[in-house]
Design goal:
The complex is a heterodimer of chains A (113) and B (109). Chain A is 0% helix and 55% strand. With 113 residues, chain A is an all-beta fold. In chain A, strands 2, 4, 5, 6, 9, 10 and 11 form a 7-stranded mixed sheet that branches. Chain A starts with a strand and ends with a strand. Chain B has no helices and 11 strands. In chain B, strand 9 (83-91) and strand 10 form a beta hairpin. The radius of gyration of chain B is 13 Å and the shape is globular. The N and C termini of chain B lie far apart (40 Å). Classes of the chains: A mainly beta (113), B mainly beta (109).
Chain lengths: 113, 109
Amino acid sequence: DAGVIQSPRHEVTEMGQEVTLRCKPISGHNSLFWYRQTMMRGLELLIYFNNNVPIDDSGMPEDRFSAKMPNASFSTLKIQPSEPRDSAVYFCASSWVVGGELFFGEGSRLTVL
Amino acid sequence: GIQVEQSPPDLILQEGANSTLRCNFSDSVNNLQWFHQNPWGQLINLFYIPSGTKQNGRLSATTVATERYSLLYISSSQTTDSGVYFCAVDDTGGFKTIFGAGTRLFVKA
């Protein structure tokens, strides 16, 4: 079975541009999580979904960030407009149930110039 | 919210040595996981261990939920064990998986 699939793996963009990160969870998993990793703040939970419904978005840093999960096999994290401080590695993870074992994708490394 | 503290923050080992990494958490948890982030940035599941002891090859983990800590044992360390080890817990309230700051391990050949 394929693991969690994220795209793009690397993104370099200029300040003010829109960035869209994509995630395909493991088939059959009902919960999906978006994390951000930086040297200063470590791994931060941004938002998580259960059965495609956002449950907790308290970690989303600003209104510039939004996330959607239109169906069980696809989620997006959008940043508009992007800023240099958004530079980080963004991870998507999924689990069979909320509170279950988490499986991570390989991450999307974002650089905002 | 729940606090997760890992120790030591950094660890350097000679190949073949054993080590113990610790994770303390401030409140009751539904589950606890250990991850290894390799030098390429991949986060790899090691253990899903809300309580008790598990072993997988040279690695083993013990969680004592009533005392709010977990230990990860690495025996006969190898250079490929280098990377960052994270402990992550779900609090009993909202099932948010919160990560500790990690233990950075370097194993010298």
